[in-house]
């Protein structure tokens, strides 16, 4: 069955194993009906408060991999671009320039990081921005050098979907995007919890983080595409080797996945919004169940795969992640900080560290740059921040 003929909801199943972890728990004081999600409201956007310090899993004594240093650093080298409107996805091109999506304006813009010059490629047709939905994740085809295809995840009038478009660089500004070819459709949409991150993995398969669209039951529903990590071929079919036959589902039991990254050993990690209590960083194992809505954060239930690190919702509300210098780097929206999670194998080697706290407002996307550098995208113009002059921005950050 092709993805374009697939019903709105696909097939899925899964199980979960617990990761050996030690998490420092603390008491929480919560206001009623809050959600960390993008970035402080269930469907209404109210703020909840949670006390207690960041907690993370202690490394297993059984792993022999060298641990990343317990302490690192992050400093902003410079501002690359300014005055971006609701930036969301970021895709570095082979020549070093950057593509950035505008969630609310449904445009893709090319940014020259040397000069800051911005060139609009065009508007993506069919995008229906509202709430947390709109034009979100971007990814380049694994064969971009020959096919010049850009992939995008967006909210339409009826669902969330993934399209690909030809980038025709020689055409005038605003007319450089070819007509979108929908390769996958039917991901549940909502005013909140639309997921939206896409990335091609080391296996050249397309991974997508989805949300449960505000309907908690979809995450455990074996017939729904909501609250999952999906693994697809570049044409939008279920990828060979997926844990469930003829299904795009790679893992399930997620609430709202907006961060995907692989380490140097090609292992997948994902960041996930919690509701009232814990945001999560997870090491992803195909076919595993990550617990939502039965579990939020660490659980004693062996059916669920525990996070390797967790945060109170006001400290994080995590969106994009990237791997660099032996650590996962995680952008925090409500938390307004960049988190470093040092790794030892698929576990946290030490307590996470926070950087840039409150310095640049809400942080949406982080992506590898050259060497020990990262690209970091702010998100203060998305309707939930407090924009200042020059917001939003792309920053170049040096990390260790």
CATH topology: Neuraminidase
Order of helices and strands: EEEEEEEHEEEEEEEEEEEEEEEEEEE
How does CATH name the architecture?
6 Propeller
Shape: globular
The number of domains: 1
The count of helical stretches stands at: 1
What's the overall average pLDDT, rounded?
88
Organism: Streptomyces davaonensis (strain DSM 101723 / JCM 4913 / KCC S-0913 / 768)
Protein name: Oxidoreductase
Pfam family, one: GSDH
InterPro entries: 6-blade_b-propeller_TolB-like, Glc/Sorbosone_DH, Quinoprot_gluc/sorb_DH_b-prop
What topology emerges from the helices and strands here?
Blueprint: E1 55-56, E2 74-81, E3 87-92, E4 98-102, E5 107-111, E6 118-123, E7 135-140, H1 144-147, E8 149-155, E9 160-166, E10 181-187, E11 198-200, E12 206-209, E13 228-232, E14 249-252, E15 257-262, E16 268-272, E17 278-283, E18 309-312, E19 318-324, E20 327-332, E21 338-344, E22 347-348, E23 353-355, E24 363-368, E25 373-378, E26 394-399
Antiparallel strand pairs: 1-18, 2-26, 3-4, 4-5, 5-6, 7-8, 8-9, 9-10, 11-12, 12-13, 13-14, 15-16, 16-17, 17-18, 19-20, 20-21, 21-22, 21-23, 24-25, 25-26
Organism: Streptomyces davaonensis (strain DSM 101723 / JCM 4913 / KCC S-0913 / 768)
Protein name: Oxidoreductase
Region (Disordered): 34-74, 376-400
């Amino acid at each position: 069955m092709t993805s374009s003929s697939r019903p709105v909801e696909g097939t899925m199943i899964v199980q979960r194993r617990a990761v050996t972890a030690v998490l420092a728990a603390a008491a929480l004081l919560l206001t009623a009906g809050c959600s960390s999600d993008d970035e402080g409201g269930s469907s209404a956007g109210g703020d909840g408060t949670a006390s207690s310090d960041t907690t993370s899993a202690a490394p297993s004594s059984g792993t022999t991999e060298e641990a990343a240093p317990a302490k690192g650093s992050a400093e902003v080298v410079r501002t690359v671009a300014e005055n971006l409107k609701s930036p969301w996805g970021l895709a570095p091109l082979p020549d070093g320039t950057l593509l950035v999506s505008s969630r609310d304006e449904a445009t893709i813009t090319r940014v020259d990081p040397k000069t800051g010059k911005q060139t609009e490629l065009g508007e993506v047709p069919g995008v229906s921005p509202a709430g947390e939905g709109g034009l979100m994740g971007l990814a380049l085809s694994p064969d971009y050098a020959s096919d010049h295809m850009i992939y995008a995840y967006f909210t339409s009038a009826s669902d969330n979907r993934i399209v690909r478009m030809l980038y025709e660089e020689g055409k005038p500004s605003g007319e450089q995007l070819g007509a979108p070819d929908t390769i996958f459709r039917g991901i549940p949409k909502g005013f909140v919890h639309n997921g939206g991150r896409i990335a091609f993995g080391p296996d050249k398969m397309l991974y997508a983080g989805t949300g449960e669209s505000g309907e908690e039951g979809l995450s455990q529903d074996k017939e729904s595409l909501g609250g999952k990590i999906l693994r697809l071929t570049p044409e939008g079919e279920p990828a060979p080797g997926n844990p469930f036959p003829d299904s795009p589902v790679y893992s399930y039991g997620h609430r709202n996945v907006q961060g995907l990254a692989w380490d140097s050993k090609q292992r997948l990690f994902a960041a996930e919004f919690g509701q009232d209590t814990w945001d999560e960083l997870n090491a992803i194992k195909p076919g595993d169940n990550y617990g939502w809505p039965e579990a939020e954060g660490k659980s004693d239930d062996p059916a669920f795969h525990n996070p390797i690190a967790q945060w109170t919702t006001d400290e994080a509300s995590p969106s994009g992640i990237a791997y660099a210098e032996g650590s996962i780097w995680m952008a925090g929206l409500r938390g307004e900080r960049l988190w470093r999670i040092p790794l030892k194998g698929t576990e946290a080697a030490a307590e996470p560290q926070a950087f840039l706290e409150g310095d640049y407002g809400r942080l949406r996307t982080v992506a590898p740059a050259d060497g020990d550098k990262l690209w970091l995208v702010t998100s203060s113009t998305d309707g939930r921040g407090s924009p200042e002059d020059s917001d939003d921005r792309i920053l170049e950050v040096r990390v260790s």
